[in-house]
Design goal:
Length: about 190
Amino acid sequence: MVDSSRPLVVGIGGSIGGIASTERALMIALDSAAGEGFSTRLFGGDALARLPLYNPKALERTEAEQEFVDAVRQASALIIASPGYHGSLSGLVKNALDLLEETARDARPYLADMPVGLIATAYGWQATGSTIAALRSIVHALRGWPTPFAAAINTQITKFDDEGGSSDAAVAEQLALVGRQVARFAPLAANG
């Protein structure tokens, strides 16, 4: 829920076809940031699916594209969560990040000096590591600051429920740490 009197953390991530593990993990991290006094906004799988494929030559943007870019412009921090597809982030998440090219000429271009928490989920360990590495690289290219801790979740082992919980308390704490870190580092970026 967005409260304009509090700084904003935007969550980006999920997959098409309903709320799955990645989006549930992202919600836990956003709840943690909210517990630190931040307003949060989630762009889950359904919202990301409404974004057309990024066309750098488009003269106009859809309402969904404008809403997404405006939210990132207002954000003090981001949390990006992606499923690990074939060893890297999903096209759905990458397409949303490509759209941030719209901020290239802003006073704060891209994710300049913004703390960005990272989460990767995959059915096995290999893709979680490579997905986190790819996300870190993209955040650096967008001039953001990946937080020191990133959560890598093997969904073959860890399950999420409809009530927002995790079958593994340690994983829930790791996700909460991602939310706390972006909340802690956001004021430092604002004062930088």
